[in-house]
Amino acid sequence: MKRKLILLASLLLISPLAMAYQVTGPVVEVTDSKIVVKKGKDNWELARDAGTKLMGDVKVGDKVTVEYRMTATSIEAKSGGKAKGKK
Questions:
Q1: Contact 22, 65 (CB under 8 A)
Q2: What CATH code would you report for 20-68?
Q3: Which residues contact 59 (CB under 8 A, 6 or more apart)?
Q4: What's the pTM?
Q5: Which of 14, 44, 56, 57 is the 20 to 30 A CA-CA neighbour of 24?
Q6: Short-list 49, 2, 43, CA closest to 23
Q7: In sequence order, which ranges of the chain are alpha helices (DSSP H)?
Q8: 22-71 pLDDT, tens per residue?
């Protein structure tokens, strides 16, 4: 029982980290390195690489749903800000 609770708690903590977003619309442009999807009046440009799963033959004008993740590639702390401590 205790093991199941630990597993459930860890899954709940991990799931937001693995959250994917999606955009749906017609394809404006598609290359080996990117896909551009029209959403409303905006064009959404999303990078592609060898790890991107492609299901079907995607052509300009096709309606697609693209799942993507936003992942930090680097984080740099800037000095000058003071952390507030408890008094």
A1: yes
A2: 2.30.30
A3: 27, 30
A4: 0.65
A5: 14
A6: 43
A7: 2-14
A8: 999 999 999 999 999 999 999 999 999 999 999 999 999 999 999 998 88
